[in-house]
Every structure is written in C-alpha cells, then in structure tokens.
Amino acid sequence: MTDDIDQLCRSLRLRRIPEVLDRELRLAEKQAPSYEAFLARLLREEHHEQADRRLQYRIRQARLPEQWTLESFPFEKQPGVNATQIRQLAELDFVPRAENIVFIGETGRGKTGLATGIVVKALENGYRARFIKAQDLFDEMYASLADRSTRRFLNHLVRFDVLYVDELSYLNLKPEQSNIFFRLMDERYARKPTIITTNLEFELWYKLLGNKDMVDALLSRLRHRCHTIRIDGPSLRDPTG
Fold first, then answer.
1. Where does the pLDDT of residue 178 fall: very low under 50, low under 70, confident under 90, or very high at 90 and above?
2. Average pLDDT, whole number, for the chain?
3. Which of 17, 30, 203, 224 has the most CB atoms at less than 10 Å from its CB?
C-alpha cells in the first residue's frame, strides 16, 4: 500500500481497507476480478468493520453487566417461560410500537437473562439501549435533586430506544424518588419502550412507590402497551436442577 493510499484512508477514517488491501491485491492478481467487484470487496470489508465498531460502542453504552443471549438461554430447564413468545419479542416489533415488557417472578427464574437477551438483539439491530439496576436508578434520582440535575438525568434516560430497569423490588424510597420515576415513565410513555424485571406483582407497587393516585397513573401508562410475562417455573440456580 502506498503512502498516498494510506493517508487517504486515514483522512476518510477507513480503518479496515488498509488492513486487507495487500491481501485483496494479491487475490486480484490471481482472480482478475472486475474493477467493480474489487472495489465492492474492499467496501464490504470496511462496512462490516464499521458496523461492528458501532455495535461494540452501543454495547458499552448500554452497560450490560453480562451479555446473555437468547440462543444460550436454557429454555428446556424453565417450563415457566414460553419460548415462542420470547422469540417473537426478539423480533423487536415492540420497539417501534413503544410497547413495554415486564418480567415478574422470583429470584433465579431467568428474568434478567431473558431481558438482557432481548436487549442484546436490540443492540445488534442498531437500537440504543441502557441497563440500570433499580437501586442505582433511584439512588441517582435522589442524588440529582442535590445538584438540580434531575432534568438532565431524565433527558439522558428518555433518549434511549430501550431502557432496561433490573430488579425492581422493595426499596426504601422517598416521595421525591417515586415522583421522578413517575416522570421518567410518563415521558417514555407511547414514545420509547421500557423493560422491567421485578419480583413484585403490580398491586404491590403501591407499597413500594407510596402515592396511590400516582401509582394508578404510572401503572395505567406502563400497562397500556405492555407484555407482562410471569415466570412461575423452578429456579435456574438450583444446583440439583
């Protein structure tokens, strides 16, 4: 590769072509492809490289603790899960429709693995997503009050195509935290989907969040366009399973 080509690739931020150009030139000497075919091969290599870099960036931005996939989920060990329903959700029609997903079940039933697998599918298909533990979410909400950054924090979360709140359970919440959570769900309502995993049935959210009228309004929005998946099967963490 000449210095001129190298400089042009740098200027155009083409990283893959310099890596494969010598190889492709040697192949071209043997196979004598058309100019169009040769150029297409180079551009295809660059396209795949850039697509992979964008995916890795979205994965880092999502902050997933682990990259579980639906392909590796042990559906055969969890009869409480409808595999067909999960694979249908993985088609991602729920994203443009702004339909929420709520997984309800006891600890160890596979809620986080399934939710994460769906989020990974969304990331692979170009959507931006964000994972956050419920405890961390409410902590950050409360901290935002001190420096008056609540609006900025909400704007940050609202913009994600898919927001995933993990392990919504009994927490010690102040009214201000419940109010900010309601604002978050209200601003995402009918615009962007939210995935929630929880061990609390909806009627128990009143005890968690406190204000009955507010919880009524929140659940009305959350459940209006929602896939509620209850997992009643065995624990996947049972060593005898």
1. very high
2. 92
3. 17
Buried b (16+ CB within 10 A) or exposed e, 46-65: beebeeeeeeeebbeebebe
**Bridge partners, 52 (sequence order):** none
Residues ≥6 apart with Cβ < 8 Å to 124: 55
Determine what percent of the chain is predicted with pLDDT higher than 90: 72
Mapped onto helix, strand or coil, the DSSP state of residue 131 is strand
Contact 95, 193 (CB under 8 A): yes
Q: pTM for this structure?
A: 0.85
Q: Which amino acid is at 43?
A: L
CB 192 within 8 A of CB 158: yes
| Full 3-state SS string of 118-155 | HHHHHHHCCCCEEEEEHHHHHHHHHHHHHCCCHHHHHH
pLDDT digits (tens, 9 = 90+) for 145-170: 999 999 999 999 999 999 999 999 98
Is the CA virtual torsion 106, 229, 204, 214 positive or negative?
A: positive
118 contacts 89 by C-beta, under 8 angstroms: yes
